[in-house]
Amino acid sequence: MNTDPVQSKYLRAARGERLTVPPVWLMRQAGRYLPEYLAVRERYSFLDACRTPEVACELTLQPIRRFGFDAAILFSDILIPLAPMGAEIAFGEGQGPVIADPVRSAGQIEALRPVQPRESLAFVLEAIRQIRAELPAHVALIGFTGAPFTLAAYLVEGGKPDPFARLKGLMYGDRPAFRRLLDKLGGMAADYLEAMIEAGADAVQLFDTWAGILPAREFRAVNLPVLQKIFARVKALNVPATYYALAGMHLLEEIRETGCSVAGLDWRIPLSRARTVLGDRTALQGNLDPTVLLGPEAVIRAEARRIVDEGRGPGGHIFNLGHGILPVTPVSAVDLMLDEIRREEP
Ligand code: CP3
Fold it and tell me: What is the C-alpha separation between 308 and 325, in angstroms, rounded?
């Protein structure tokens, strides 16, 4: 079913409307804390699950059925579109993603192939079509991709980017090659998001998990121009776009200038303080500390309530965690959180 922009609380808040009870969804809402997810993962590897539209569709819908979230996020990964560019990606059990042949020279950057999402990522677009056909009209479907800087971090480091010496070495050591890398990734991201929107995504989110390692000055110099181009292309399609940067509180002014419609915030900063920098034309998304869900009922309720209250200023608020839900989270903690958020539902 197509989304109804009036019925969808997520879309209304993303466009800046204030609601008594904010819409809610959780980053990584389809995942290992859900028994029904683990059951599917016994039959499919993570990559096979991402590449099989019926399975990706089922995994996307699981948390919607169980919790009635206001938005569904496509089951996939930010690293999926790197494969058609030429990077070989593996997800080892428990060790995170590994890229076999890291990209570290100008020659390797030049060799990265352009992506035709309607061809090499057709399985993602088919999953989106299937999900949209199954979702109720009041639930928005979010498509996503990694932001160029974060994708570059994985490509250059070859896996979990720590301590970012190679990535920042390239950034400071060969600025033209680094810019070329971000441009290529930015072009891919914009083409991919456009194709997702065409296939039925109602909104998009750009994950910039590692942007927080940048000084504000460097963010402005290398990252901001690429982000502005992506958001300008999405905005032309009249679809709300979220920018999420982990540990990006020192970047709020720059984030406001990206042109995103929603700023995704981690748990470090009070929403009310972020609002003073972002103003009322950018909606806020966040920002419960994911580890709160490991605590007792009274703490879960108090923290969820605090965030609903802090989100109430001018401009919209979408309730979420400050980062992905942890695999050890009890399902009952999510129920308690939702019960608290939705207490004033008419
Ligand atoms: O949010 C959702 O439920 C949608 C699906 C989604 C996944 N990854 C599924 C996934 C999304 C939006 C992502 C984004 C993603 N992937 C990010 C950005 C957000 C963030 O968490 O900071 C990053 C950096 C990745 C890269 C990635 N994928 C890592 C580092 C790992 C291993 C660590 C981990 O959490 O397991 C993954 C694997 C991954 N992506 C899983 C899932 C459900 C776990 C797969 C499994 O073992 O079953």
Answer: 18
The whole model's pTM is what? 0.97
Q: What is the pLDDT of residues 106-158, one digit of tens each?
A: 999 999 999 999 999 999 999 999 999 999 999 999 999 999 999 999 999 99
Nearest CA to ligand 1 atom 45: 46
Rounded-to-integer distance, Cα 49 and Cα 53, Å: 8
Q: Is the CB of 29 under 6 A from ligand 1?
A: yes
List the domain boundaries for the chain: 9-341
DSSP 68-101: --SEEE-S--TTGGGTTTT--EEEETTTEEEESS
What are the pLDDT digits (tens) for 17-40? 999 999 999 999 999 999 999 999
Active site residues per annotation: 28, 32, 41, 77, 154
CATH number of 9-341: 3.20.20.210
Q: What is the DSSP letter of 241?
A: E
CA 123 / ligand 1 centre spacing (Å): 18
Q: How far is the CA of 77 from the centre of ligand 1 (A)?
A: 6
In whole angstroms, give the CA distance from residue 181 to residue 166: 14
Pocket flag, ligand 1, residue 219 (CB < 6 Å): no
